[in-house]
């Protein structure tokens, strides 16, 4: 309850859940998603952490390959991951992405940024980037 009071004092919305089976005691709280709330709770241990996937996901950057415009035998996509560039014909992703604008870059003006695990496979003489 002390945390809920501290959050309310900072004008962060909080919902307190009470358990009827335990004399209506407060058993959990839900906090408005915001940066201020994250900062106040970042030091708290995460419940059931052992059930989360382990390992940090590495950034993967994906953009169009302009060389494909001059030579169609060159794969149309570039995937950059762990300091390596992979030239691929297709991208299959099971994860979300964000956009990254690079207006001052002479090679590409924008790209897609993923976080995940990358696997390059051959499929009918074509390279495919799989992101999970």
Q: Average pLDDT, to the nearest integer?
A: 85
Amount of beta strand: 35-45%
Largest beta-sheet details: 5 strands, antiparallel
Question: How many strands in all?
Answer: 10
In total, how many domains does the architecture comprise? 2
Distance between the termini: 39 Å
Gyration radius, to the nearest Å?
A: 23 Å
What's the arrangement of strands in the largest beta sheet?
A: 5-4-3-8-7
Count helical runs: 3
SSE ordering: HEEHEHEEEEEEE
Helical amount = 10-25%
Stretches where pLDDT is under 50 for at least 5 consecutive residues are: none
Shape: elongated
Structural class given helices, strands, pairing?
mainly beta
Regarding quaternary structure, what we see is: single chain
General description of the model:
- With 132 residues, the protein is mainly β.
- The chain has two domains: 2-49, no CATH class; 58-131, no CATH class.
- 14% of the residues lie in helices and 44% in strands.
- It has three helices and ten strands, in the order αββαβαβββββββ.
- The strands form three sheets. The protein has a five-stranded antiparallel sheet with strand order 5-4-3-8-7, with no helix packed on it. Strands 6-10-9 form a three-stranded mixed sheet, with no helix packed on it. It has a two-stranded antiparallel sheet with strand order 1-2.
- A hairpin with a 5-residue loop joins strand 1 and strand 2.
- The chain is elongated and about 70 Å long.
